[in-house]
Amino acid sequence: MTDLDSRRELGLLLLLTAVMFITIVDFMVLMPLSPYLMSQFQVDPPRFGLLVSAYSLAAGAASLLAASIADRYDRRHALLFTFAGLTVATFGCALAVDFYTLLIARTVAGVFGGVIGSVVLAIVGDVVPPARRGRAMGWVMLGFSLAAVAGVPLGLFLAEHHGWRAPFAVLAGASALVWLTVWRLVPAVRGHLAQAPTGLWQGYRELLAVPNHWWACGVTALTMLSGFSVIPYISPSLVANVGLDPRYLAWVYFVGGGATLFTRPLVGRLVDRHRHAHVFAVLVLTSFVPIVLVTQTLPLPFAWQLLFSTLFFVFVSGRFIPASSLVTGATEARLRGRLMAFNSAVQNFASGVAAFVAGWMMSQGPHGELLGYGWVGLMSCAFGLAAIWVAYRVRAVS
C-alpha cells in the first residue's frame, strides 16, 4: 500500500497523532508527579532517578532490538502489539503498591513505549507519498507539543484531586480506546516485507564502520545528557526548594509547552537557512542561562519561576531541532533508517543515564529540599559545551 485518498489519510494521521500523544504523555507524566511519589513511597533523589532512567534504558534496549526485526512484520501488527503492551504497563503503574512494583511497571512501559514512535514514523513513511510526507510528519509530531500543553497539566490536575494513581489509570483507559480504534481503522502495511531485511550484525557493522555516524550520535548523546540531567528534577526542586504549591506545577508545563508551539517553527526556519552546527551552538550557549536559573532554584515569586522554566522549555527543547537535522544529514539515504534507529537507542540510553547520575549527585536535606541541584546544572552546561565541539565534527552527507 503506497497511497491513501486525502480523507482516509487525514484520519490515519489524526489517529497516529493520538498514539504519539499518549506515548509521550506516558513518558513525561512521571517527572512532574515526583513530589507525590517521593512522599508516597519515601523515595530519595537517587531512587527517583532510577524510576525515570528505568523507562529510558528499557526503551533503548528495545529500540536496538527493533532496529533489526521491525521490518519483518506488518506495521499494523507491530503497532497493535507494542501499544497493547504500553496500555497494560501503564495500568500496572496505577496498581503499583510500592516502589519496586512501580519500577517494574515503568520498565515494561519503556520496553513497549520506546518502540512505538519508530513504528508510527515507519507507517507514515510507507503510506504517505513523498510530496506530502513533510506535512504528515508535522501532524504526527504535534503529539509531542500537545503532550506538554494538555497531557501533563491534565495529569497533574488528576493527581491533585484524585491521587497520583489517577493519571495512569485515565491514560490506560484512553490507550485502550485508541487501541480499539487502531485495530478497526489502521490498514495492513506490508509493502516493506518484499525486501529482505539486513541481518542484525551485518547491518550494524556497516552502520558503525562510518566515523561520521559516531560523531552524529555523539551529538545526540551529549545533548540528552545535558537536558535529562536537569529535566526530571525541575518539579521536585520547585516544590521542595522554592516552596511552590504542587497545584501550580501544571502551569509550568502548560505555559512552557505552549511557548514551544511558537518557537519551534522559528528554530526550524533558522536551521533551514544557516549551518546546523552554528544554530545548535547558539541555542546551546543561550540555554545555559535558564539551566543555571532553574537549577539554582532561587527563592523568587512564582511569576519569575514560570519565566525561568518557560525559557528552559524554549531553548533546551529547541536544541534538539538542529541536533536532529545534523544526524539526519550525516549519512547516505540507504543507511538513514538504520542510523535513525540506532540514534533513537542512543537517545534513550543517554537520557536514562543522565537521570540516574544526576539523582546520585543529589541528596535530601532535613526539610526535604534537594541538595546539589546547582552542581547538576553546571554538569549540564559542561555536557552542552562538549556537544558543540562534537557538532562541528559532523560532516553533512545528504
Summary keywords:
398 residues, mainly alpha, Growth Hormone, Chain: A, 2 domains, 2 strands, 79% helix, globular
CATH 2nd-level architecture of the largest domain? Up-down Bundle
Write down the Rg.
20 Å
Tally the helices.
16
Percent range of helical residues: over 70%
Calculate the terminal CA-CA distance, rounded to whole Å.
Answer: 27 Å
String of helices and strands: HHHHHHHHHHHHHHHEEH
Task: Indicate the mean pLDDT.
Answer: 83
* Overall geometry: globular
Please, how many domains? Answer: 2
What class do helices, strands and sheet pairing give?
mainly alpha
Proportion of β residues?
Answer: under 5%
Total strands: the figure is 2
Q: What is the third-level CATH name, the topology of the largest domain?
A: Growth Hormone, Chain: A
**Strand order across the biggest sheet?**
1-2
CATH class of the largest domain: Mainly Alpha
Mind telling me the CATH superfamily name of the largest domain? MFS general substrate transporter like domains
Low-confidence stretches: none
Major pleated sheet: 2 strands, antiparallel
